[in-house]
Structure formats: C-alpha cells, structure tokens
Amino acid sequence: MFTTGFKFFFGIGVALVTAAVLYGYTTGGNWVGPISWGWKEGVGEHIGYGVLMFLGLAAMGIACTLIFFRDADPADQADYVGVEDIEPTMPVTGSFWPVIGAFGAGTMAVGLVLNTAIFITGLVIVSLVAVEWMMDAWADRATGDPEANRALRNRIMAPIEIPALGGAIIAVGVLASSRILLNASKLGAVVIAGVVAVIILAIGAMAANSIEFKINRNLISGLAVVLGVAILGGGVWATVEGEREFHEHEVHGSDSHEGDESHEGEDTDGEHDGEAEE
Amino acid sequence: MTMTDSPPATDTAPAVSSPAVAGLYDALTTTDHRRIGRLWLRTGLVGLLGAVVIGVLLGIESTDAASTDVFGGDNAYFQMWALYRIGLALLVAAPLFIGLAMVVVPMQVGSTNIAFPRAALGAAWGFMIGAGIMVVSVLAAGGWGATDRATGDERDAVALTLVGMGLVIISILLASMCIATTVISLRVKGMTLMHAPLFAWSMLVTAAVWLLTLPVLLANLVIAYVDLHNGPGTFGGGLNGSVDIYHQIAWLVEQPQVYAFAIPALGVLGSVVPVAAGVRAARHAVSLGLIGLFGLLAIGAWSQPFFQNDGAIPHDEQFLFIAFGLAAVLPVLGAMGGAGDTMAKGKDAIVGLPAAHLMGALGGGLLLLAGVAAGAVRVIEPLELGGSADAVEGIGTLAVSGVGNLVLFGAITAAVGGFWFWASKIGGHELSPMMGRLAIADLLLGGVLLGGAQVVSGFFDTVNDPRFVPTAEAADALAWISTAGAVLVALGALGVVAAIAGAVRRGPAGGDDPWGGQTLEWSTVDGVFTEPPALVTSEAPLLDRTELEPEVDSTEGEES
Amino acid sequence: MTATTTGLPSAEATRPRTVLVATMFGSSAAFITFAGVLLVYVRARATAIEWFDASSVELGPAGFIFATLILSIFTVQWAVQAINADDRMNAFVALGLTGLFGAAVFNQLWFIINDTGFTLNGSTAEFLFFVVNGTFIAFLIAAVAFLALTFLRALVGQYGPRKADGVAAAAFFWNTVVAMWAIAWYVVYVTK
After folding, report:
1. What ipTM does the predicted assembly reach?
2. Does A80 touch chain B (CB under 8 A)?
3. What is the Cα–Cα distance from A145 to A101, expressed in whole angstroms?
4. Is B261 helix (H, G, I), strand (E, B) or coil?
5. In terms of residue numbers, what domain contains C85?
6. What is the pLDDT of residues A18-56, one digit of tens each?
7. Is residue B547 part of a domain?
8. What is the pTM of this model?
9. Chain C window 30-69: which residues touch B at a Cβ cutoff of 8 Å?
10. Structurally, how many domains does chain C consist of?
11. pLDDT exceeds cutoff 70 at B415
12. Nearest CB partner across the interface for A142, out of C5, C16, C24
C-alpha cells in the first residue's frame, strides 16, 4: 500500500504539477504549451511555470524513493539488514571538523568576493575537512570498541592532519592579517603584528602546557575562536575598507634615474614595499 | 484503540549520556542534539534582539522619514529595512524553529540523537558565520544593491551580503536535511509517519518546503552574484548593484513563501494544546493533513514578480496567486478550530491564567491566522484592498510587509511558546510563567499593532519601499501605531531573553515532565531515554499508558 | 599501539536508509538549484530580442558529454552492485571509471566554453550560458568529490553486502547530476 510519506510528497507533487499547468494557462500559455512543457506553443510565465513543474517533479521523485524504502520504517530497515531491531542512532564522537568546515566555507565565501588566494585557502580547508569528516565517520563504526576506533583513526590520520591543518591555519592567518596590516597605519601595523605575535605565542604555550597541566580547554578554544574571528572578520573589514594609501616615492627626473640602484637604497621608510604591493 | 506495549525488562539499553564537559569547547565539538539545538536557539535569540532593535529604529524613521535620518542616508535606510524583513525570516524564525526541532524532534520520534549530528553542528556554525558576514556587510554599506547604484565603493560589500546570505541558506538546507531525515529514518519501532507527533510532522513538512524552495533562492543569488561580479548588469549587477538584486529575492519574505517560516507554529499548537487541556487531540490524521496542506500553500518560489514579462498580468492578480492566498486561510483556520475543540473537551484542566506555553501557542496561531487572513483579503481583487501601488515599479503596498510581519511574529510567538513548553528538555530549566505571560502578551500585542497597522496602511496605498514617502493622511498615524508595536515587540523579546537568562542562572529545575505530556520526549530523563521506548502504535503513547494503567495494574503479573 | 582489530566486537548495525534519505533530499535541493538557474536562462531567451547565434554553440561535444554521462550511469550502478556482492575490486574499478568519466565531461565542457568564445560580461545570453554551465560544473565537481570520498571509505574497509548505503548515496547524487545535464543539454544545446 501507499505509505504516508509517499502520499504526502506525491500529493504535493501532483498539486504542484497541476498548479503549473493552471498557471501556464492563466498567464498566457497556449493550448498545448503548458501540458507539453512548451514543446509546442507557449507555457505562459516561464519562471512560475518552470519552478512549479520542477518542484512538482522533485516532490514526486522524493515520493517514489520513499515508497521504495517503505518510508524508511524501522521494521523495514531492520528487515533489510537482516536483524530484528536496529537502534535509531549510533554514538558519534565529538569533533572539531564541523566548525572548521564551517570556517572553511566562510573563508571560501569571503574569498569568492575579495581574493582568490583566500578562496583557495577556504577550498583547501573544506577539502581537508571532507576527508577528515569521512574518516571520523568511518572510524566511529570501524569496530564496536570506541577506544580502538579512536586509535585506528589517529594512527591513519594524525601524520597527515597535523601538518596540513597547521599549514591551512598559517595560510589563512597570513593572508587575512596581511589585509589588516595593509589597511592599518604604519605604526598601527607594527603594533598589530606585535600583539598578534604575542597572542599566538601565548596560545601555543598554553596549548603545549595543556598536555601536562590540563589548562581549561574552553579557554584555549575561546582564544582560538577570538583570534580566528578577529583575523577573518578583520580581513573582511580591511578589504572592504581598502588598503591604506601608499605614496609613490618621489623620484626627481625619473627618466635619468631609472634603474639607479643607489637611489633605491636610500629608501628607508618601507614605501617600496607598498609599491611592490600595488 | 491504539496502545503502547511495555518494554521488556531485559531489553534495557544503556542510556546515551552527554559528555560532562560544557562550555565553548563543547559548543565547538558537541554531537549532542540538545546542545546543537541550543546553539541554534541562542543564534535565533541574538537575531531576534538585533531585529527588534532595527525594527524600533525603522519605526522611528518611518514616522517622519522626511526630516528624520536615523541610519545616515536613504541607501542605509533601505538596506536596514531589507535586512529587517529578510532577517526576521532567515535569521530569527528559521533558527528558532530549527533549534527547537534539533532538541525536540529526535526525542519525539524516539531517537537518541539527530541524524548526522556533525552536519547539524557544522550547519549551526556555518549559519552563524554566514549570518555574521551578511549583517556586517550590510552595516559596511553593502546590502542588496545600492539604491543609487553609485554611493561609494560598495561593490564588495554588496557581494559579501550575497555570499553571506548564500551560506545562511546552505546551512538552513543542511539543518533541514538532518531534521527531515530524523523524522523519516530514525523513528522508534512501530511509529509510522501517520503516528508522528504534530511538531515532528510540522518540521518534516517545513524542512521539505525549505528544501524545495530555498534552492530557488540560491539560484537567484548565484545569478545576482555573478552578474555583480563580472556580468553585463542585467540582474542587478553593474556599478554597485541596483535594488533589482533585492527585488529578485524579495519573494522570500512575501506571501505565499513567507508562510513557510510559520508552518512549525501549527506543530507547536498541535503539541501544546492537547497537553494543556489534558485530553487526547481528536482527528490526528486531519491535523497532519492540515499541516501538510499549509506546507503546500507555503510554496512560493514560483511567485517572482521580478521575472514577470512586460505587459503580463501583475503577479498578485494572477489566478494561482489569488487561489493560494485564499486557500492558505483554510488549514490555519482548521488547526485553530481543532485546538479550540480540544480545549473545549479539556476545559476543566484550564483554570485561572493560561500557562505561558498555551498563550504562546494560541497567540502565535492567532497572529498567523491574522496574517493569512490579511493575505487573503489582499488578493480579493474586487475589494481593491491590495492598493494600486503595484504601479510603482511593480512594488506592492505596505500590506505585503504587514502580512509578512503578522505571519513571522506569529511564528516567533509560537516558538517562544515552544520554549516555555519544552524548557525542561532544552536546558533542564523551568522558565518563569509570569515573565512568559508578559513577554508573550507583548509579542502578541506588538505583532498585531506592527503588522496590522502596516496592512491597513497598505490598503491606503502606502508603497512597500521606504524610499517612497506615504501620501495618505492616515499613513502617519498608522506609522506611529506600527512603531508602538515595534517597541512592544522589543520589550517582549527582552522579556524572553531575561526569563531565559534568569532560568539559566537559577540552574536546572522543573522535572522531566512538568505538564503531563503525551509524546515520547516527556519520557526522557534529563533529555535522555533511560530505556528504549516501547513499541509505539499511537501518536500519544504516554497518554495511552496512563489510560491503560488500571488495566496494567490488574494484569501486573502477566505484564512483568 | 597495535592496529589489529581481531577480536574486537563489530560495530552495531546502523539504519541503512538514513544516508540515502538525506542524499535524496540533498540531491533534490541541488537539482532545484540548477533548475532555478536554467529557468532564468529559458525565460531570458524567450523574452530576448537577440540571442547568440545557434552556430556559435556546437551540439556535437555537448552530445558527447551526454553520451559519456549515460555511460557513467552504468558504471556507477556497477559500483553499487559490486559492493553489494562484496566484490571490492570491481567496485573500485567502477568508481574509478565513473570519476574518470566525470573528468572527461569536465574537459569536454571546458572545451565547449572556450570554443564559443563567449565572455561573461558580453551579453545576457553569453552571461547566462556561462552561469548554467558553471553551475553544472560546480555540481559535477561535488559529485566527483562524493565519489572520491566514497572510494576512500571503501578502501579503508567500509561497505559490503546490505551495507552499501554510502555507495548507493554517491550513485544517487551522480545520477541527479546526469539528470541535470540531460535537461541542460536539451534546453541549452539542442533547442538553443
């Protein structure tokens, strides 16, 4: 018999397809158009007709899949696997990967707008997270012993993930903080660089100590989040604001001094860095 | 008569306990559905506080737009107005219901966790990051296309708004996938979809509607973004983008699509009322059907005025739009009628002041009914109450926003009722009943004034765009009423947050089943099933057990 | 630490439909996203005064893509069948072949886009041609990534008879992407 899920989704599908045909006729569609997907004659308003038709078909597709699964009723699922009963869910270990993945997605989104390098960094983070996530999901079900599962996972992944994650964090940090530094005044940039360096050192020291002294994980997590948000948010803000103005180094008689090494050597205020950036 | 079997004594499964460590580390790594749900709820509450503040500021500006400049320019005013409308749906109503669903739905269907808890956690953080990008970029002179196309160098900020919104939508879709999969695939043995509790069913319907319609919005965003980034400017791109970008996505917060954010309100209503009345709700299958019908009528991705052909019938005069607008009243009216019938049967249980959760559920339902009714009146062509402002760049009247606000504040009020109802499941707390009544009354009254005044103002042809100064004399007075509503709503939101903060400070209290619940979530201890739920063959298994108790006692030996 | 799992209890059975149900919803959402983009293309073409010349987009390579994707339906289902029969080697070959077909499709589509000489900001028609094909490429890459992760997971020992849900899910999404191209092929390349 038809299952409840099938009836619901198929009903929605039929209603939407019917609505599409009605919509077609009432918005200027010709005789055969709305019932032939516009193969012959017009369908009326294209967007409304098409959206209703595609949504209807998608709902019908879901309905057909659901009836194939018998609404995924527990008894049917157990029967499929060949056991008497299956627990609804298995324990899933906690993981940083979802939040890192979300951070990666955010980085991609920001990079899409502001900087290709940031986008690629986000893409790398998301790709790494996809692999890690998949391995976690595998490890959760590798055996019935959670400890053994964890050991298995770490044995395979730790040699890869520590350098990769470190690299990704450094890449994002360098790119985003460079935006901040380019936006800030010269003195401000020095101060910001100093403060960030001290914070990184402090977090590193605390993380190292936590192995032996069990420093509060929440504190470390909090600092990491604050730093991450500051770098990403600051990077976004700074890029939106634009770089600070870099004054062209005044070159008298530039034609005659072109390629004059000694002249470039006189540049002690770092303005040439700005030129290079530009 | 359906019944619940007692679980065999030897088949007791170990409780799935949550990790002991709490705090930020846990928020970053947890796979416990209650904690993930709380992340969504907190995000929704922060969104609510932000939205009500913007609402009050918009109200102040609207009372005298000619001489008041709260936001620093027309473009900023327009962007904040758009942020309010879009944010109320995407950043407030959606996360509040997703949060409630993450906590409650698994328990209601007898599962120990949500499907794909890591994906649910990732979605929560993705949502927060996306929402952050969206809001910050709007504040940084971005938004949905500059109104004058040339105010400063805003191109990147506009693009950031679009990608932030895209991330928000993808996160909502991911969360919807988790919720829908939980209801379909993780039900306890014996519980068919026909027996699914109404809130769980309403979330399945909501998730399905979101999964079917929000991808269309994503497609709109992709086109607008690429056009803005490097396109010919046909879809709002070029310079800093035009408000065409906003008009492409405005269908999200207009009827019928805006109803999609209020579908769970019917689920809250169907869950709260029978428990408050202490009776079995009649005609469960009809309630499922009504919620499903409302879901169908909330599918509005097809109604996109921006893409109407030149010279075509205006979208709100089209047959299907009118049919959807009128029909949407029926399921809400039916659900409210069902709630009334249930309350009439259990009137002995409801004495004195109504409980906060009952107020929230009924109040939310009433606001929603007012919203869909206003939507229906708006589409009745002979009444000409839709106004003639459609002639202005194809933009509707303020009634469009009014309907949206009534519906969305109905949804939010119902969600707040859900907070009070399921507080012991969300965080193990008991929320102050009096604070709840006050906050919900504020939300209710504020919602009516805010949305109602806008609907009436729309009937006086006030244009649904802050750049157009109202011409009708009554519009000024209605703007003041609407602003008063915004202030009341803000007070209500503050009350909700204060009550929750107070409860958290007091610590867990209230017990596992303070209301005598009928569905499986009330059989959990500290949110965890201490024993596997018994074979469920009814929508109210705990009530079945209560009703069967004398019989169980008399056959105790056989049962054991 | 020894990595042996001999003697350890095996994991409890999981609900086999969970991944497939989620994939069904995700695939529907992906399909509708693509359809949404395609509909804007169709609407713009129907209301446009000028559109690009039909000869600037050749049907041949697009047909080859379609043929390649049709072949890939067989290989991806072969992978599901093989993993259900616990024939891992065949499953790996089938998954690898499907991925290879994906790469071939990407290559052919890249050729088409270059061959047209269109520019993103040239005209509405050219712009939408880019967006439709670009959106398809995004979903194709997602489908190949899904297959790759499934391959990796199979490689470390997961899946087997009546536990092929992950592979079936990847196949489901792959077939959805094929359906996307089927529609795009007809709408964008055949009818132009």
Report:
1. 0.93
2. no
3. 27
4. helix
5. 17-45+66-190
6. 999 999 999 888 888 888 888 777 888 899 999 999 999
7. no
8. 0.88
9. 30-37, 39-40, 43-44, 47
10. 1
11. yes
12. C5
